[in-house]
Amino acid sequence: MSKTHSKSKKQKATAGLAPGTLTYVGEEKSSKVDITVIDYDGADLLEEKIIEDVRNCYDYKEKESVTWINIDGIHDTRIVKTLGMYFNLHPLLLEDIVNTHQRPKVEFYEDNIFVVMKMLNYHKETKKVEAEQVSLILGKNYVLAFQEDIEGDAFENIRERLRKKPNGKARNSNSAYLFYLLMDAIVDNYMVVIEGIGEELEELEDKIIHESAGDPTKALHKYKRQLTFVRKSIRPVREIVNNLVREEDDAGKFLKSVHFYLRDLYDHSIQVIDNTDSFIDMNSNLLDTYLSMLSNKTNDVMKVLTIFSTIFMPLTFIVGVYGMNFDSMPEVHTKYGYYIIWVVMICTATILFYYFRRKRWL
Question: Hey, which residues does 145 pair with through a beta bridge?
């Protein structure tokens, strides 16, 4: 059974359920959920993995230091539900976390801010873009990050900054700055994905121009699907960041300290969208270029065939005339008639050939 069919079947299974019902919609997984906690301030940093009891995360909720709880794997809805209960998360928020088909969005609650985004990864070997859903929750002194996949993310650079730079901006800022850093890492990773696809398109462009690409239509259609998927994933981010910048209700109090950073993130999101649109246009232009070159080559072949057909047309006429079976044809009985006809045909073909060359049709 295909993944698409399996996910569609799960989505149908959730239809009609009560709002707030936690039903995981995504690829089936049997691996354990990996929970990592990084608690820090300007002086100390504590990093640990919660293996035995997810309830140990509750100890960090009321601490004055900043706590980043990263949950890799959302297929175990019991863990999501337990964390939701400890951190007083709305049931509809929890429902969105476990629904991996959730459109990127932002929601403002009384005690927290909830953002859903897509984290992308481009594999050059398979030339395929893979996406996983990331849900970020900003609270007073904590950030919860729910990731769909177990392995790999775009946050490792942030972890290194927290570990190795105790005097850096990240270690000495509040949870809102960490929230911004996580969003910024996802958006910056979009640029990496776009540039990866762009490099492939530029290589294909050179091959098309030098006529060494064979038939690139399948590759171009594949890139078009990938770029369209990327655009669908990143376009809502601009709206998300814009809403964060403009939020003035009680939830906006968490974001006052990072207002200017969010405006910069908004600019980055626009840049990513513009680059994506540019590469989509480039992909379409490459297809038009290839089809135009193919059409020109076909026209050249047809022109040559037409010219040669024109050259042989009078020769065919002469052969047809003297191929008729009439007895009273004086030329047929002429001693040198055969040679004369050859000379006439050769001269006719030569004259037409040089005429076409002079017109630069050949």
Answer: 70, 136
pLDDT at 2: 41
d(CA 51, CA 150): 14
User: b/e map of 256-295 (b: 16 or more CB within 10 Å)?
Assistant: eebeebbeebbebbeebbebbeebbebbeebbeebeeeee
Give the Cβ contact number of residue 182 at 10 Å.
Answer: 23
User: How far, in Å, are 118, 149, 169, 198, 279 from residue 124 at the CA level?
Assistant: 19, 19, 34, 11, 17
Q: What is the CA radius of gyration of the chain?
A: 34
Average pLDDT of the chain, as a whole number: 84
- 3-class DSSP assignment, residue 133: strand
Q: Which two tokens stand for residue 271?
A: 């840049």
Closest-CA residue to 115 (of 248, 273, 297, 243): 243
- Alpha carbon distance, N-terminus to C-terminus of the chain: 58
What is the C-alpha to C-alpha distance for residues 120 and 122, in angstroms, rounded to an integer?
Answer: 7
pLDDT digits (tens, 9 = 90+) for 70-104: 998 888 888 888 888 888 899 899 999 998 888 89
- The 8-class DSSP code of residue 336 comes to T
Tell me the C-alpha distance between 81 and 90, whole Å.
10
Task: Quickly state the pLDDT bin for 213 (edges 50, 70, 90).
Answer: low
* CA–CA distance, 155 with 141 (Å, rounded to integer): 19
**192 conformational bin, left if phi > 0, alpha if psi -120 to 50, beta if neither:** alpha
pLDDT, residue 8, reads 45
pTM: 0.79
pLDDT tens digits, one per residue of 105-164: 999 988 889 999 999 988 888 878 888 999 999 988 899 999 987 667 889 999 999 998
- Residues 179 and 182: their CA atoms lie apart, in Å, by 5
Question: What DSSP letter does each residue of 245-257 carry, written as one string?
Answer: HH--SGGGGGGGG
Confidence (pLDDT) at 20: 61
Structural domains present in the chain: 3-293 (3.30.460.20), 302-358 (1.20.58)
